[in-house]
Amino acid sequence: MSSVIKVNLPEQSYEIAIASSSLDQLGQQMAALNLGKKVLLVSNPTIFKHYGARAIASLNSAGFEVATCTLPPGERYKTLNSIQKIYDAALENRLERSSTMVALGGGVIGDMTGFAAATWLRGINVVQVPTTLLAMVDSAIGGKTGVNHPHGKNLIGAFHQPRLVLIDPEVLKSLPMREFRAGMAEVIKYGIIWDAELFTQLEDSKRLDQLRYLKTDLINLILTHSCQAKADVVSKDEKEAGLRAILNYGHTIGHAVESLTGYRLVNHGEAVAIGMVAAGQIAVDLGMWQKEDAERQNALIQKTGLPTQLPDGLDIEAIIEALQLDKKVKAGQVRFVLPTQIGVVTVTDQVPSDTIRQVLQKM
């Protein structure tokens, strides 16, 4: 398998390169971009143990000088304290404006490395090498970087596009089952907001809860269609002035659930799945979406083994209050991405709090 998807942007276009065993071509791919010789590879200990040596060997063979920085895994470490550790490594290794930070890991590592690169020396190169399905199809693409604030997810951040996104599907084989399922939430999201064909292909698959049940052709389709959807949207709206907001489908309530559970109880994909169920039902209650389509969505989410109910004991009023801290709030109004048919969504701030409350109470 080998695909190249272009993210076309006014200032800095780049490629999403998808190919089996492409991790071993990382250095060669970066050398072709004429980047500076100093590289800081950021990862977590688990991912680094699996793939660090291969990445470093590839970079060294292409003439890069490589330093490393490893951070603890998990959303609760996506903080300014972790960013400080990246800065310390950048300073210790004398990274320059031509230098590059390479994010080898999932969405947490990718977001933090991107933010550190955006702010070190007012902005240096970053290359994304995602190792989770969620990062491959979503967070590694599009230049959104950042860290969490105790009161909200990704409230601190910057737009900083990568120079390259390198996706090696082979690394998914070491992905824990729960993390694979988390990535499938974002894949389903693309089916709802943009790509009805992808949604139908997922429906036709017998099992989606474990990587081993998915044929190579389906994995290829999931990666190429999802990355193409993200590239299409970002190319049309780089900094979320309008269209790009549709990528937040399921994320409004999802982010509230994540922050209220301390980023420990549910992971990002699980929270997005819950958020999609809620958003779908809100759309049905407002007369915008057919009940049958909402049921198709929820059945697909269940097929992946993702949750469709709120965690036990979560306070509904706390969720309503947390929504006001969402980044997408405008003039005090919470903006929701709501489906109107499979493959088509709209963005609205005309969702009554009582409607949100009633939907959540039934979950």
Give structural notes.
The strands form three sheets. This protein has a seven-stranded mixed beta sheet. A two-stranded antiparallel ribbon has the order 7-8. 50% of the residues are buried. The chain is of the alpha/beta class and 363 residues long. Helices cover 44% and strands 18% of the residues. The protein is globular. The chain contains 13 helices and eleven strands. Strand 1 and strand 2 form a beta hairpin.
Which helices and strands, and how do they pair?
Elements: E1 2-7, E2 14-19, H1 26-31, E3 38-43, H2 45-61, E4 65-70, H3 80-92, E5 100-105, H4 107-119, E6 125-130, H5 133-139, E7 144-149, E8 152-159, E9 164-167, H6 177-193, H7 196-204, H8 216-236, H9 251-260, H10 268-285, H11 291-303, H12 316-323, E10 336-341, E11 344-348, H13 353-361
The average pLDDT is 94
Helix content: 40-55%
Low-pLDDT stretches are none
Q: Briefly note the structural class of the backbone.
A: alpha/beta
**What would you report as the Rg, rounded to the nearest angstrom?**
20 Å
**Tally of alpha and pi helices:** 13
Q: Can you write the helix and strand succession as a string?
A: EEHEHEHEHEHEEEHHHHHHHEEH
Strand content: 15-25%
Strand arrangement within the widest β-sheet reads: 1-2-9-6-5-3-4
